[in-house]
């Protein structure tokens, strides 16, 4: 039973992770409740309107436009997001230079905490804004008409609608637009937004004609997914399986001679290789994102790679230069197990850290990894129960035969000794007795 469970875990992991990363690619069409908003319906009645879900902050965006006689474009927009807090702000703007916050000519709607109706104004976002300076309503050098903000209590949508006259300098086939959501505001002044990936990726280059967009974070998001998959499979699945094999199949309850080592070694080696690629990709991502660092995730990631590298180099050193020095080997075993078990703690913690960063689009990731952990835990539990049952059963048998011949020579008897000494400790019964003689003699 147990030997068939491991492949199942691997298969499940392989299938559920790509789904977490790529399968949940929901359509870009707006949701029904957005399409039923009064503002959208009215807009669509007057002129055929395009609508898209934006990639971040659960925002949806509808627009239509026509060219005026002076080579200008009149654009009607509607942007909405579900506002969960009782106060906050929603911003949308265009940027004549680049798809970024600084330089954006924004329309910001503020929802005051006292429940009165929201107010909406235009703001010129500059470098100073980014340095935590205040922003006050101002002229933005564009004609903005009929700007309204609404909070629809039924669906929870908070929306801005407006009409802009864009001069020729804005290329409507490549319109840089930016949106943002914040939860604190004082009077007319929005306070700084959260600093999550979502808040940084909320900008794109949109083609108003076709609705096609070039999202700024697109490439990076794909790298993040590959980073997540490699790390979950490498560190999070293969390495624990390797440990399970070493713990339960080396001596007790199953003794699989040199077989266990081949499997242990290949799981660790493959896990290490995949994990290292994932780790390198993580470093690259961290290097690229000059705006933010995820400190805990980074430090833990570096520790994991460092510890694992120590494990692997030690292992290689032993295989190249087998030594029979028992004292040294005993110390090495303790150290090998210590590093191994601390890795087993750090890895899931850091995987959950990473999943946390993807908030709020991380539910599939969370469940995929929860599933892997639960399966691994079930296998360990089953093997542990089996180990103890076998052990207790054998001891009873031995006690019955005690009067007969001495039983100190069989491996099971050694096992028994060890077990009674180690009762309740985290390491396995067979731990620390000639762990690495097997691989060397077996290879
Ligand atoms: C309320 C005052 C605001 C403050 C203090 C503020 C501050 C910041 C800071 C510190 C960053 C981190 C990136 C960096 O350091 O370069 C950032 C990024 C960003 N913010 Fe704001 N922000 C504010 C309002 C807004 C508004 C109103 C918008 C939308 C119109 C917006 C959109 C963005 C975007 C898209 C990014 C991503 C990085 C970039 O484009 O530069 N922010 N903001
Ligand atoms: C509009 O643009 C075209 C070329 O892009 C130009 O020939 C024409 O003079 C412009 N018209 C006005 C009113 O600016
Ligand atoms: C808005 O800020 C930019 C600098 O980011 C400045 O060049 C521009 O003149 C400002 N526009 C208005 C209308 O104040
Ligand atoms: C703004 O709203 C008024 C009244 O609803 C309407 O008459 C006018 O056409 C609107 N302007 C634009 C540019 O949509
Ligand atoms: C606007 O962008 C499109 C697509 O990149 C490009 O082909 C076109 O020449 C641009 N128009 C202007 C006026 O810059
Ligand atoms: C709510 O707060 C805004 C500004 O924060 C203020 O202008 C408005 O009068 C307040 N409304 C009520 C009903 O207190």
TrEMBL record:
Signal peptide (UniProt feature, chain positions): 1-23
Organism: Theobroma cacao (Cacao)
Residue numbers binding heme b: 227, 264, 297, 336
Any GO molecular function: metal ion binding
Annotated protein name in UniProt: Auxin-responsive family protein, putative isoform 2
GO cellular component: membrane
Domain of life, per lineage: Eukaryota
Transmembrane domains' residue ranges: 228-249, 269-287, 299-318, 338-355, 367-386
Predominant place of localization: membrane
UniProt subcellular location: Membrane
Span of domain Cytochrome b561: 189-392
Domain DOMON: 57-182
Composition-biased stretches (Polar residues): 400-443
């Amino acid at each position: 039973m147990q030997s068939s469970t491991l492949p199942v875990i691997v298969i499940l992991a392989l299938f559920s992770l790509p789904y977490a990363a790529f399968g949940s690619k929901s359509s870009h069409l707006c949701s029904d409740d957005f399409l039923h908003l009064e503002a959208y319906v009215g807009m669509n009645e007057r002129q055929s309107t395009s609508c898209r879900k934006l990639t971040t902050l659960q925002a949806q965006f509808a627009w239509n436009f026509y060219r005026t006689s002076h080579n200008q474009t009149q654009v009607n927009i509607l942007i909405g997001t579900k506002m969960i807090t009782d106060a906050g702000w929603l911003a949308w703007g265009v940027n004549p230079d680049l798809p970024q916050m600084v330089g954006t000519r924004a329309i910001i709607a503020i929802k005051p905490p006292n429940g009165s109706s929201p107010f909406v104004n235009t703001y010129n976002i500059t470098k100073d804004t980014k340095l935590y300076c205040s922003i006050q309503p101002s002229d933005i050098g564009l004609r903005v008409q009929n700007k309204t903000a609404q909070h629809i209590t039924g669906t929870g949508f908070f929306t801005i609608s407006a009409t802009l006259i864009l001069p020729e300098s804005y290329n409507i086939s490549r319109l840089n637009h930016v949106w943002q959501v914040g939860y604190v505001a004082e009077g007319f002044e929005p306070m700084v937004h959260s600093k999550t990936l979502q808040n940084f990726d909320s900008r794109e280059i949109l083609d108003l004609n076709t609705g096609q967009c070039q999202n700024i974070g697109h490439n990076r998001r794909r790298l993040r997914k590959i980073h997540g998959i490699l790390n979950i499979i490498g560190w999070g699945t293969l390495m624990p399986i390797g440990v399970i094999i070493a713990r339960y199949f080396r001596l007790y309850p199953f003794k699989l001679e040199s077989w266990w080592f081949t499997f242990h070694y290949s799981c660790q080696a493959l896990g290490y290789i995949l994990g290292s690629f994932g780790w390198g990709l993580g470093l690259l991502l961290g290097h690229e994102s000059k705006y933010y660092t995820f400190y805990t995730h980074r430090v833990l990631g570096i520790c994991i790679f460092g510890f694992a590298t120590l494990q692997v180099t030690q292992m290689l050193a032993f295989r190249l230069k087998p030594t029979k020095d028992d004292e040294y080997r005993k110390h090495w075993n303790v150290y090998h197990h210590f590093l191994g078990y601390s890795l087993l703690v750090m890895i899931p913690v850091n995987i959950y850290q990473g999943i946390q960063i993807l908030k709020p689009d991380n539910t599939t990731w969370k469940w995929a990894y929860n599933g892997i952990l639960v399966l691994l835990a079930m296998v360990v539990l089953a093997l542990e129960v089996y180990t103890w049952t076998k052990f207790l059963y054998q001891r009873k048998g031995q006690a019955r035969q005690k009067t007969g011949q001495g039983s100190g020579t069989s491996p099971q008897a050694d096992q028994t000794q060890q077990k009674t000494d180690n009762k309740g400790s985290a390491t396995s019964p067979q731990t620390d007795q000639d762990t690495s003689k097997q691989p060397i003699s077996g290879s």
